[in-house]
Specification:
Length: 89
Amino acid sequence: MTDPKPFVLFTQDQCPQCETLKRMLTLPLRGAFDDQIEVLHRQQHPDAFTALADAHGLARTPALLHRPSGKLLLDTGSLGAVKAFLTHS
């Protein structure tokens, strides 16, 4: 089994902010971090989503988790904040 990716993107259906974050990762950041981010979708993987969200006290989406440090980024509306989190975590 391979090591888990260092980042987790928490997302779900009917979440405009989730779609905005996904577009941000795809367009301005040009997928530069795709190989480092595991997408955990609430409806597609409910057990894994709930277990990891509960373990980190996550109450809303979207969010990015840095697994090694346990840090969460909840303010995902800013390209600068997202890029800084992915680069410096």
